Automatic annotation (TrEMBL):
Residues 1-26 form the signal peptide. Probable carboxypeptidase. It is an enzyme of class 3 (hydrolase). PANTHER family: SERINE CARBOXYPEPTIDASE-LIKE 46, SERINE PROTEASE FAMILY S10 SERINE CARBOXYPEPTIDASE. This is Carboxypeptidase. GO terms for molecular function: serine-type carboxypeptidase activity. Gene3D superfamilies: 3.40.50.11320, 6.10.250.940, alpha/beta hydrolase (3.40.50.1820). It holds the Pfam family Peptidase_S10. It comes from Rubroshorea leprosula.
Length: 465
């Protein structure tokens, strides 16, 4: 009798193991499912995080965090979000400080009322390797990393991610991001179009770029006028900042390690007048004093709900360096390093001169290929000001022969002016987000969500309340 009982139990265990094995083979993403993040409030959507190998030989593994849509994820598009830098984390900045479902608050997470997973299945990727939890066991993989390497790795990531999540293969796919993602996103989208010519895999429906670097000189040199027009520098400094040494020249010299005496003097004067206690990423917002004093830099601002917590970046760093959080995320830190918002030079050696290669031409190529493009700008950002982006979009529209179908006009969100917009040929759009920083979804979450929803639906931004 006992023998029969044990045989029955053993058979049941075998069936259970077989069932689990079949499930994992059919849905390998089950291994990446997040049971519960420490301090997390209850939610109805599924979360996943883990690694996707992009180079078996060098064991290059990119870390992702995936939050399915709050309601009916099967009917919602897939959106890949990339932060810039180069070398900054889409997990820490995008997911936990901007448009993800949670914000860290001490030991807890609080709900983000304006999370973008209200409208889409949101996939956040820490790229390239050396950023956040992404890593390689081959140290030569970090030195140097270029735009081409990053784009290729990101493409392989998506290919392999679809193996984990096969039910998303044919889903409408959008790529969004900000800042240096003005390089990442168009270059990845271009590779996707080339890949689709051989094998139809990516159902790419559009890209959206926030305060993006698209053309080095235009974007960087618009900073001087922005500083002056917002009262951050004097008339005299504005003149030398546009004649003796403009910002693109200074950055170019700095990256080459050969800053000229004149550029050094000009930038010293600009820095003195703007003050390190003003956040260049949002010239109207207060700064996190502890971060300014300890790191000798102004941090990008962050927010929780409608109350802006300028020190939330510190909270994110503390949260993601907790062992219980890393365990829940299935994350690891290779080499004993700490998780950081942006990777430092000792870990990641990026080819910074790639910033000088224009990507606005790739944006034009995507439009010719039928891919809708939205360029949006937080209008309080002096790092990549709206004036440069607006100029580049308008020039591109003229080059492509696109007619204005929505004249420059105001748009609304929450019974207030959300910003201004212009649409060319129903495929290229420009929009500002009023009162927003470089990280627009952080500082103006409601307005950013309205913009995002319209972008996904291919709809014009609201013309009335």
């Amino acid at each position: 009798m006992i023998s029969l009982l044990w045989r029955t139990v053993a058979f049941a265990v075998i069936l259970l193991q077989l069932h689990i094995c079949i499930q994992v083979k059919s849905f390998p993403a089950l291994l990446d499912r997040i049971a519960l993040l420490p301090g997390q409030p209850p939610v109805v959507f599924q979360q996943y995080s883990g690694y996707v190998t992009v180079d078996d030989k060098r064991q290059k593994s990119l870390f992702y965090y995936f939050a399915e849509a709050e309601v009916d994820p099967a009917s919602k598009p897939l959106v890949l979000w990339l932060n810039g830098g180069p070398g900054c984390s889409s997990l820490g900045v995008g997911a936990f400080s901007e448009n993800g479902p949670f914000r860290p608050s001490g030991p807890f997470l609080v709900n983000n009322e304006y999370s973008w997973n209200r409208e889409a299945n949101m996939l956040y990727l820490e790229t390239p390797i050396g950023v956040g939890f992404s890593y390689s066991t081959d140290s030569s993989s970090y030195d140097p990393v270029s735009d081409k390497i990053t784009a290729r790795d990101n493409l392989v990531f998506l290919e392999n991610w679809f193996i984990k999540f096969p039910h998303y293969r044919n889903r409408s796919l959008f790529i969004t991001g900000e800042s240096y993602a003005g390089h990442y996103v168009p270059q990845l989208a271009e590779l996707m179009l080339e890949f689709n010519m051989k094998e139809k895999l990516f159902n790419l429906k559009g890209i959206a770029l926030g305060n993006p670097v698209l053309e080095f000189a235009t974007d960087f040199n618009s900073r001087a006028e922005y500083f002056w027009s917002h009262g951050l520098i004097s008339d005299t400094t504005y003149k030398i900042f546009t004649s003796a040494c403009n910002y693109s020249r200074f950055v170019s010299e700095y990256y080459r390690g050969t800053v000229s005496p004149i550029c050094s003097r000009v930038m010293s004067q600009v820095t003195k007048e703007t003050s390190r206690f003003v956040d260049n990423y949002d010239v109207t917002l207060d700064v996190c004093i502890s971060s300014v004093l300890s790191q000798s830099k102004v941090l990008a601002p962050q927010a929780i709900g409608e109350t802006i917590d300028v020190c939330v970046e510190d909270e994110t760093v503390n949260y993601l360096n907790r062992k219980d959080v890393q365990m829940a995320l299935h994350a690891r830190l290779v080499g004993g390093r700490r998780w950081a918002v942006c990777s430092n030079n000792s870990i990641l050696d990026y080819k910074l001169l790639d910033v000088e290669i224009p990507t606005i031409t790739i944006v034009g190529k995507l439009i010719k290929g039928g891919i809708p493009v939205l360029v949006y700008s937080g209008d309080q950002d002096s790092v990549i000001p709206l004036t440069g982006s607006r100029t580049l979009v308008d020039q591109l529209a003229k080059e492509l022969g696109l007619k204005t179908i929505v004249p420059y006009r105001v748009w609304f969100a929450g019974q207030q002016v959300g910003g201004w917009t212009q649409v060319y040929g129903n495929i290229l759009s420009f929009a500002t987000i009023r009162g927003a920083s470089h990280e627009a979804p952080f500082s103006q979450p409601e307005r950013s969500l309205v913009l995002f929803k319209a972008f996904l639906g291919g709809q014009p931004l609201p013309e009335t309340f």
